[in-house]
Amino acid sequence: MSLEKFISQAVSSWMNQEGPYSDIVLSTRIRLARNFKQYKFPTLFNNEEAKEIISKVESVLQSSNIQDGGKIELLLMDDLQNLQKRVLVEKHLISPNLADDSSHGAVILSGEEDSSIMINEEDHIRIQCLFPGLQLAEALEKASSIDDILEEHIDYAFNEKLGYLTSCPTNVGTGLRASVMVHLPGLILTQQMNRIIPAINQLGLVVRGIYGEGSEALGNIFQISNQITLGKTEKDIVEDLISVVHQIIAQERSAREALIKTSNIQLEDRVHRSYGVLANSRIIETKEAAQCLSDVRLGIDIGYIKNVSKNILNELMILTQPGFLQLFAGGPLRPHERDIRRATLIRERLKLEEINNG
Questions:
Q1: At residue 214, does pLDDT exceed 70?
Q2: Cβ atoms < 10 Å from Cβ of 158
Q3: What is the model's pLDDT at position 213?
Q4: What is the C-alpha to C-alpha distance for residues 273 and 283, in angstroms, rounded to an integer?
Q5: Residues whose CB falls within 8 Å of the CB of residue 54, separated by 6 or more in sequence, listed in order
Q6: Nearest to 319 by CA among 295, 350, 282
Q7: Which residue, of 67, 85, 146, 320, has the fewest CB within 10 Å?
Q8: Directed axis angle between helix 322-329 and helix 312-319, to 10°?
Q9: Would you place residue 262 in the very low, low, confident or very high pLDDT band (cuts 50, 70, 90)?
């Protein structure tokens, strides 16, 4: 398969779109956790109950056409190879938990892959909607519309005082997890993130790595999300997060302006050195690739690098992950082989960019 064809098939359609504040906010995600009233939670249910839940959710969504009449696809975790599940995690379509503990799990995907409904993960249902840029209100509206469709046919576990009941107490209430993926090289280079993270935490939000809880912030990419789900409405949670993200955007832009003003030649040199590494390396590890991609994306945003797409960071951060590299290679690779493949894929992708924008 050619690289161009592989990219077009591998990268979700929504990722190629540009959203508000896309120079800093890469993506927005809304996730709603729900459970059936009449079934035991996934930690206690049996295989037959799990199958019934999958069948009921699929039946409701198939008949409702959740995406403007478009097709949806059900994937049973037991039917997928480990490599296929890993790729779904790397595309943020399923959680690592669903991939790792998937004996009863499934996911329903919309045609654009901007909506995914995980079934029998930590909760019976986890509705997830993904948007480019900062579009929390829009993502909430879409997730809520799917939730409304399901709630017409499913009796949810709900308490008048507590709200929606979930397996983990931290999700009780709205069951809402709202998050944004942000690229913050300016705040890292000006050494402000160690001060900002505790301040964000004090506001009831949490800062995590690129794949959520327990993951690393590769390439200066952070995920900011709410911690509080009880005692606030969904609208309040989203508005609070939007307010904080706007402040982060302003601080990141200020940090970039300060770097240009005080260290312009050093910053330009860093950007072009990183581009040179990506364009010429024969072996490159995940962390080095992520850092160089972050530098190049910064260079694109502030005008040091021309004729290279902004989306290249979003795209290559996914395509250079272990699962995708092995998918492109057609089978398992040892770590050293992945580093070689990663370097090759990046070089070829940059050449393709030069041809398309030449």
A1: no
A2: 14
A3: 54
A4: 16
A5: 74, 76, 106, 119, 120
A6: 350
A7: 67
A8: 70
A9: very high
User: Which of the four pLDDT bands, split at 50, 70 and 90, describes residue 106?
Assistant: very high
CA 159 to CA 306: how far, in whole Å? 55
3-state secondary structure of 5: helix
Q: How confident is the model at residue 356, as a pLDDT?
A: 74
Residue closest to 188 by CA, chosen among 164, 219, 210, 227: 219
Give the Cα separation of 275 and 281 in Å (integer). 10
15 to 18, 31, 347: CA distances (angstroms): 8, 18, 21
The Cβ of residue 312 has, within 10 Å, a number of other Cβ atoms equal to 20
Instruction: State how far the Cα of 311 lies from the Cα of 12, in Å rounded to an integer.
Output: 12
In whole angstroms, give the CA distance from residue 227 to residue 218. Answer: 22
Whether the predicted model's global pTM rises above the 0.85 cut: yes
Instruction: Give the number of residues written for the chain.
Output: 358
Quote the tokens at residue 319. Answer: 């395509």
User: Rounded distance, CA 1 to CA 329, Å?
Assistant: 10
Q: What is the pLDDT of residue 235?
A: 94
